[in-house]
Amino acid sequence: MDIKELIKSRYSVRSFTNEVIDIETIKDILEISSCAPSGGNIQPWKIYVATNNAKEKLVEKALANYDNGVQEKIEYDIYPNPLDEEYKKRRSECARNMYTALSIKQDDIESRLSQIRENFKFFGAPVGMIVTIDKSFAENGWGHVGMFIQNICLSAVERGMGTCLQESWSIYPETVKDILNIPDSEVVWCGIALGYPNKEHPINNYRTSRESIEKFVTFIE
Ligand SMILES: Cc1cc2nc3c(=O)[nH]c(=O)nc-3n(C[C@H](O)[C@H](O)[C@H](O)COP(=O)(O)O)c2cc1C
């Protein structure tokens, strides 16, 4: 697959088959992903790979949190508050498209909450990963980790797999750290669901759009 096709083929997969991924394949993906650039080559990414019992334990506890309305101390702002109207519009469109694909109406709160709950099952993926970064890093370091994460997403696609990045996991940092033994010196940034896409599921059969480059590029001569 050439790079253009690879980038265009990636999308957020929110339903997976139960096909198992062997640990050597996961290692391979992570090794190639670590070729990402980082300022001073500091490589500030950390990633915890949960499979089998560890993943089940994490999912069980997170679902219990969700069902019981547990609130943990969140370690970073997922979105700026307030969020500018332009960004809000894109976020609403993103949600609208997803719920439309699932035939969930705007006022059907129960179905919407039930779909959000799927996050805490890693959408049924056989592999659940948690990305962290040392608390000492500010925005610059987080940007470097982003490059590593994108490599994971693309490497998965190249192998016929898919991913969904999940900031949703950042709402339960205490649970995640407790179950995966992550030191409190790290911030739980996001999760990554990894597996083979369930191509039959409607949630995997719509695509998000992007603004034209005029919206975000300034050419200066
Ligand atoms: C850091 C990050 C966190 C995200 N967190 C979630 C999440 O918690 N749940 C979810 O369903 N999608 C999540 N997404 C996926 C975005 O909604 C998705 O990337 C965006 O709508 C564009 O769609 P696409 O990935 O299909 O191109 C996240 C994406 C990023 C980059």
> What's the helix count?
7
Nearest-angstrom radius of gyration? 18 Å
> How are the strands of the biggest sheet laid out side by side?
1-2-4-3
Main sheet, how many strands, which sense, barrel?
Answer: 4 strands, antiparallel
Structural class: alpha+beta
Overall 3D shape:
globular
**CATH fold naming:** NADH Oxidase
Low-confidence stretches: none
Q: N-to-C terminal Cα separation, in Å?
A: 35 Å
Number of domains: 1
The percent of residues in helical segments reads 25-40%
Order of helices and strands: HHEHHHEHEHE
Structural commentary:
- It is a single chain.
- The chain is an alpha+beta fold.
- The chain has a single domain, classed as NADH Oxidase (3-Layer(aba) Sandwich).
- It is built from 7 helices and 4 strands; from the N terminus they run H-H-E-H-H-H-E-H-E-H-E.
- It has a 4-stranded antiparallel sheet.
- Helix 2 packs across helix 6 and helix 3 runs antiparallel to helix 7 (173-180).
- The radius of gyration is 18 Å and the shape is globular.
- The model has no long low-confidence stretch (mean pLDDT 98).
- Flavin mononucleotide is lined by residues 11-12, 14, 94, 119, 164-168, 190, 208.
